[in-house]
Amino acid sequence: MEAKSVWDADGWRASANRIFGPISCRPYDAEFSAWATQREFSPDLRVSRIETGAQLLDRPAALIDAGQAQELLVLMQLNGQSTLIQRGRAVSIGEGAVAICEGDVPFRFELPTPQQSLIVLQLSRSLAGLPAHMVSQASAHRIGADVPGQVALRGLVYGLQSPQLALSAGAGVGVGAALARAAAEVFSAVVRGLLAQRGPEVGERLKRLAALRSSLREQLADPELTVEQLAAQHFLSPRQVHALFAEEADTPAAFLRRTRLQHAERLLLQRDQTGMTVAAISRESGYSDSAAFIRAFTRERGRSPVRWAESRRGGSGSRETRER
Prior knowledge:
Strand order of the largest sheet: 1-3-4-11-6-9
Structural class: alpha+beta
Pfam families: AraC_binding_2, HTH_18
InterPro entries: AraC-bd_2, AraC_XylS_family_regulators, Homeodomain-like_sf, HTH_AraC, HTH_AraC-typ_CS
GO molecular function, one term: DNA-binding transcription factor activity
Helix content: 40-55%
CATH superfamily of the largest domain: Jelly Rolls
Keywords: DNA-binding, Transcription, Transcription regulation
Protein name: AraC family transcriptional regulator
CATH architecture of the largest domain: Sandwich
């Protein structure tokens, strides 16, 4: 077990990055102090006890390395109150409550008052063994005692960080792996229990998102289409539209951009039959002018539209075709 007393912001930043990986720490006052202990039971399971002053922990996309471990965090509040913001959702976590955070998805964790106490369980995604869509639906939701398995998960998390749990040197590896599997099983049961409770709500939100995506596909040729117009068509607010896409780590603009480029790809591959020019394809794909289309396509696909189509057909094309 590692124990580290930290009495300044710089020391805590170093400790937090060592314990949790790349993360931004912003204390709210000059008298900030914190300490943390961490136990590693296996490469798939670690548990930390944290006592901290008021601060903001932030992991934007820029701090997420594709090569770093994909972890799921179970946040258990012992004292104080915190707020987890992820996938467009904000959940308040009070004493005795639990929330799940995806460590490899951007998030913010606000601890607005001093004397905060919490336990963080870090579990690898691979050991949890849950489909990504289930975890994404369960993250950033308050998990109270009414969720099946929550009490067992709290007891397990609290017991794992207790100094009274001592592993002998000889039994450490095998027992640690067994504890990691047990934690994964309880975690999985809690996620399934939470989603079962939220089933009707989740189903309705997925239907709304599917309808929004369908509308964007149908209107992809309109270069003037806005989120405000899309929201009005579905009797939603722009904020609700953004929140629905954020639950899938997406945005309306990013989805529309991908959809337009995919549509343009299909038209480019059909040019020999249709005779469409690049300018016509750009208009059909929702771009106001061909120059903007060519820049966007080249930025995403690494080559111009015509050269991309030629590479897919396996030919170089004539000079006249390339210039059209």
